[in-house]
Amino acid sequence: MADDLDRLLDEVERRLCHRRGGGGQEQPAAAKEGRSAKVLMSAGSSEEDLDDIIDEICNDSSFTKTPPKLKSNSASLTPERNSVVVPAHGKRCCPVYLGGSLSPSGIGTNISKRACDQLRCTACDFRVSLFNDYVWDQSCDYLFFRNNMPELSKLRAKMIKKKGARAYACQCSWRSIDELTDLQTEPQLRWVCGKHGE
Predict the structure, then answer these.
(1) CA dist 171 to 60, 131, 143, 176, 187, Å?
(2) Is 48 exposed, middle or buried (0-12, 13-18, 19+ CB in 10 A)?
(3) Distance between CA atoms of 196 and 139, rounded to whole angstroms?
(4) Rounded CA gap, 33 and 93, in Å?
(5) 10 Å Cβ neighbour count for 17?
(6) What is the pLDDT of residue 96?
(7) Residue 88: partners with Cβ closer than 8 Å, 6 or more residues away
(8) Contact yes or no for 120/192 (Cβ under 8 A)
(9) φ, ψ for residue 193, nearest 5 deg
(10) pLDDT tens per residue, range 7-66
(11) Cα distances (angstroms) measured from residue 115 to each of 13, 38, 108, 141, 144
């Protein structure tokens, strides 16, 4: 078994050296630096030996100390406003929050509680419309939304102005919200985050 493991390690080292431009050098990195395969493959390897091997690999000068720059979707600071801009390419809220017009909108997380503005209904497959500073009249019913969504001119007939509130609706469900609310507390609503675009 030790021979098989030895061959496997040699193959990994050869491939690693080849990828980093080692070219035709067939010498394993361990042999170049004076490390013996005996230390790596001793029959009674203990946890301390493994820690030593890991430390030796981490301190190996043949590995680059600085990681390569990767394209990331991390936050970048805009100098003009000193506000953090988070590019949101196809990201979803988790958990999904609903909120009044005073609640911030965007991608909601456990840390950054924001009302999702990209909701989609899985029951009627309609985009959920939201109207800031309005609530739905008590007389609203399923047929009203089924017949009038998404035409704002027809929907206004049953909208009541209320500062700080937000009216949500699709073709089959509607809700008026005043404060930030987790969508999981509204099990009858079959709304999900429909991904936030660029």
Answers:
(1) 62, 15, 9, 15, 17
(2) exposed
(3) 33
(4) 49
(5) 19
(6) 92
(7) 73, 106, 107, 196, 197, 198
(8) yes
(9) -70, 125
(10) 877 777 776 665 545 444 444 444 444 444 444 444 455 666 767 777 666 666 555 455
(11) 50, 59, 6, 24, 25
Token readout for 178 is 């005043």
Contacts of 106 (CB under 8 A, 6+ apart): 88, 112, 114, 115, 116, 117, 196
pTM of full prediction above 0.90: no
Per-residue model confidence (pLDDT) at position 18: 53
- Classify strands 129-136 and 159-169 as parallel, antiparallel or unpaired: antiparallel
**Residue 169, pLDDT score:** 95
Taking the C-alpha atoms of 135, 137, 138 and 141 in order, what is their torsion angle to the nearest 10 degrees?
-110
Per DSSP, 18 falls in state H
More confident residue, 175 or 109: 175
* pLDDT of the residue at 34: 47
Q: Which of 114, 115, 117, 96 is nearest to 189 (CA)?
A: 96
Q: How is 46-104 classified by DSSP, letter by letter?
A: -HHHHHHHHHHHHT-TTS-SSPPP------EEETTTTEEE---SSB--BS-EE--TTS-
**Neighbouring residues of 37: CB distance < 8 A, sequence distance ≥ 6:** 6, 9, 30, 31
Asked if 152 and 124 touch (Cβ cutoff 8 Å), the reply is no
pLDDT average, residue stretch 186-190: 91
Place of tokens 């609640």: 103
